[in-house]
Amino acid sequence: MEIEFRDSLAASASETTAGQFVLVSKVNKDRIDLIRAECIEVRGKTSSYLRKLIETTELSLPLDALALRSNLSSEWGAFMTQHLMRVHAHLNRPSEDVVAYTAWRYDTLTA
């Protein structure tokens, strides 16, 4: 998985048999909103494409992640989870309060 971050946005691309599965998310306070999901063929460098994609999706509205996840294969659902885990790592939130930190991570993974 390749991933790029800019401010509150993250864009990732994962290789599948159908092309690149691209996800874009936006951190909104304690939520991580999925704002774009598509399977495409990326021409050129994936990281360059992801940077350009972040610039053009700044004002997008969130998708219904639960409905989307229920209609995806388990492989693509795993890419969504991996994307969120990488966003968690990038945010580097304090984890001294283990209960609050675990609750936040669980909330973002199940929302």
Q: Unreliable stretches, pLDDT < 50, 5 or more residues?
A: none
β content, as a range? 25-35%
Number of helices: 4
Number of distinct beta strands: 4
- Characterize the biggest β-sheet: 4 strands, antiparallel
Q: Structural class, please?
A: alpha+beta
Strands across the major sheet, in which order? 1-2-3-4
Order of secondary-structure elements: EEEEHHHH
| Helix-residue proportion | 40-55%
Oligomer: single chain
Terminal-residue CA separation: 22 Å
**Overall pLDDT level:** 86
As a whole number of angstroms, the C-alpha radius of gyration is 14 Å
Shape: globular
Task: Walk me through this protein's architecture.
The protein has helices at residues 46-56, 65-70, 74-91, 98-110; strands spanning 2-6, 9-16, 19-28, 31-40. It has a four-stranded antiparallel β-sheet with strand order 1-2-3-4, sandwiched between helices. The chain is built from four helices and four strands. It is globular. With 111 residues, it is of the alpha+beta class. The model has no long low-confidence stretch (mean pLDDT 86).
